[in-house]
Design a protein that fits this description.
Shape: globular
Number of domains: 1
Strand content: under 5%
Number of strands: 0
Structural class: mainly alpha
Mean pLDDT: 95
């Protein structure tokens, strides 16, 4: 049974937390990279357009992604986030 979570705060607050999670994981070499990328991929609807653009910029400007497997996760997420941005009519 899938549970529903009630968030106390604004949608923008949750979006900012997701942005922060991505920033925390970017460049790390642990399980958190795959987990974070998967969560962001499955929850793009929770990310504001502004934060989506920031996450995309962060990934594009990253100088060190971690191991090759981590880089693959980030590049895969980048593609998904760009597709989401395009669906929203943004560049």
């Amino acid at each position: 049974m899938e549970s529903k979570i009630k968030i106390n705060g604004k949608d923008e607050d949750l979006s900012a937390m997701l942005l922060s999670a991505g920033r925390y994981a970017l460049g790390r070499q642990t399980y958190i990279v795959q987990w974070t990328c998967e969560f962001l991929t499955n929850n793009t609807h929770l990310i504001t357009t502004h934060d989506l653009k920031v996450i995309i910029r962060d990934i594009e400007q990253c100088e060190y992604y971690g191991w090759d497997c981590d880089k693959e996760e980030w590049i895969k997420l980048l593609k998904i986030l760009k597709e989401e941005l395009s669906k929203r009519g943004e560049n």
